[in-house]
Design brief:
The protein has 84 residues and is α+β, with helices and mostly antiparallel strands. It contains 2 helices and 5 strands.
Length: 84
């Protein structure tokens, strides 16, 4: 299982938009149970194409920026922005 960490900005976003973002939070939390922590759709590497660690994930009308630290099995959610 992966450990999920959230930036303070992301935590505040979810608290301020709780009813609107509940499904998004659930989708993010589901990643920790996936062996590779890769969502089935919408994931784009933003750095080294050979060994990416920084990703853009387009999901549920949001852009999610996340860092994957494979050796420590940590997903760090850096930013969440609505697409509208």
């Amino acid at each position: 299982m992966w450990t999920l960490n959230y930036s303070e900005e992301v935590k505040t976003y979810f608290v301020d938009n709780e009813p609107y973002c509940f499904d998004l939070l659930v989708r993010i939390e589901e990643l920790k149970f996936d062996a590779s922590a890769v969502p089935p759709e919408g994931l784009t590497p933003l750095d080294d194409p050979e060994e990416p660690s920084l990703y853009l994930w387009l999901v549920l009308a949001h852009a999610v920026i996340l860092r994957k630290i494979v050796d420590e099995k940590i997903l760090y959610i850096i930013a969440v922005r609505p697409l509208e």
